[in-house]
Amino acid sequence: xxxxxxxxxxxxxxxxxxTISCTGTSSDVxxxxxxxxxxxxxxxxxxxxxxxxxKRPSGVPDRFSGSKSGNTASLTVSGLQAEDxxxxxxxxxxxxxxxxxxxxxxxVTVL
Amino acid sequence: QVQLVQSGAEVxxxxxxxxxxxxxxxxxxxxxxxxxxxxxxxxxxxxxxGFDPEDGETIYxxxxxxxxxxxxxxxxxxxxxxxxxxxxxxxxLYYCATDMTMIDAFDIWGQGTMVTVSS
Lengths: 111, 119
Known about the structure:
The structure holds two protein chains of two kinds.
Chain A: E1 9-12, E2 18-23, E3 35-40, E4 47-50, E5 64-69, E6 72-77, E7 86-93, E8 100-102, E9 106-110
Parallel strand pairs in A: 1-9
Antiparallel strand pairs in A: 2-6, 3-4, 3-7, 5-6, 7-8, 7-9
Chain B: E1 3-6, E2 10-12, E3 18-25, E4 34-39, E5 45-52, E6 57-60, E7 68-73, E8 78-83, E9 92-98, E10 108-109, E11 113-117
Parallel strand pairs in B: 2-11
Antiparallel strand pairs in B: 1-3, 3-8, 4-5, 4-9, 5-6, 7-8, 9-10, 9-11
């Protein structure tokens, strides 16, 4: 069982938006602004898409955005494209004893 | 540009140990904080441990304490992760990953090393 809770799947048609939630506790998501999101295509290593809740690394399209409210973080993919079909994982800093926790992943399907 | 290149796939028997390597190029290992993340087949990502630059020590996830050892050879810019007392549940893809740009997230990943534990 993963420390952070994500829905197992989400879907949308090309051009639409999809939002993925990531629920933790006040000891991780709610306690720090160090939530990140990773995209994983089959057979590939994870790729960082969002860090510090809402910041995008260089090269990540602005169709990807992140936010947080309380103990729940969210990733929104706007203007869905075929190449966005992948697994998405959230992660959060959780304190010095056990610093990094991940969600169980959400499979995004572009219909 | 920094790259992390990991060692090849391993097959081990239950009770054995495995040592996975992660060679850094484009940077020196001392400039990076290396972490290890694993992914069991069909499962999510799981942080195993990594270097904490604030106190200069390696921290291990409680789940793996006593079974995992992470080391570095700065002369070859290679990081290692050794997992002992292997069991079938340790069958997974093991990644090294680092926070190169110091943004409290893993922005560079190795290609992964598949470790299969089977009798």
